[in-house]
Amino acid sequence: MMFDDLDEIRRARKKYNYKMFQSGVGTFRELEELEENIFSKGKLPRKTKELVALGISIAQSCYG
């Protein structure tokens, strides 16, 4: 699946995250809470955290 812009990626991610969350499997809720905690205020700025996450995604060949 190819995306034309960042907003399209965000919409697709939100759509599929919602579907997983609605499945009732507790793991998805825990992953959502983990992401929320990771990107909350802390010692590193959010932008730095997002760049680290992007680097990990690229290194793991995680598209989107």
Give structural notes.
The protein is mainly α and 64 residues long. Helices cover 69% and strands 0% of the residues. It contains three helices and no strands. It has helices at residues 6-22, 26-38, 46-59.
Helical stretch tally: 3
H-E string: HHH
Shape designation: globular
Q: Span from first to last CA?
A: 9 Å
The largest β sheet comes out as: none
User: Mind telling me the C-alpha Rg?
Assistant: 13 Å
Low-pLDDT segments, ≥5 res? none
Query: What structural category do the secondary elements indicate?
Result: mainly alpha
Count the beta strands.
0
What do the pLDDT scores average to? 85
Percentage of residues in helical conformation: 55-70%
Task: Write the SSE topology.
Blueprint: H1 6-22, H2 26-38, H3 46-59
Short description:
With 64 residues, the protein is an all-alpha fold. The protein has helices at 6-22, 26-38, 46-59.
